[in-house]
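Recall the central idea of this unit: under ordinary conditions, the amino acid sequence of a chain determines the structure it adopts. In this exercise we apply that idea directly, starting from the sequence alone.
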Amino acid sequence: MKKHFFLASLLLLVGNVAQAAHTVSLGWTETTPSVTFNVYRATVSGVTCTGSGGSAASCYSRIATNIATMSYVDGSVLSGVKYFYVITAVDAGGNESLVSNEATAVIPTAPNPPVQLAPQIH
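Accordingly, the structure predicted from this sequence is:
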């Protein structure tokens, strides 16, 4: 099964900074309909091992399966970490496509808490 699609957008959404809650929103398009999608993530680039037709499983960890839409929100990211994402399409027979292009998200670190200064009397 040859499917061609691209990870079209990557949007980093920052939640409440005090709690350092972050999410990564992924969106993609494809040229032919498929049944579902799998989402893979790594903390090092997997382009080297998948660039020659390697499987996503050899480079990335699968974080979502059977996604029926062309978007996914990863809510399990950590502050200060760089993530790499790829998507695969899966047809009705369970055949998985080659990986999409790789998208990168850098999660910001939480800012330092405000410093409270005591007033000084001169």
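Helices lie at 47-50.
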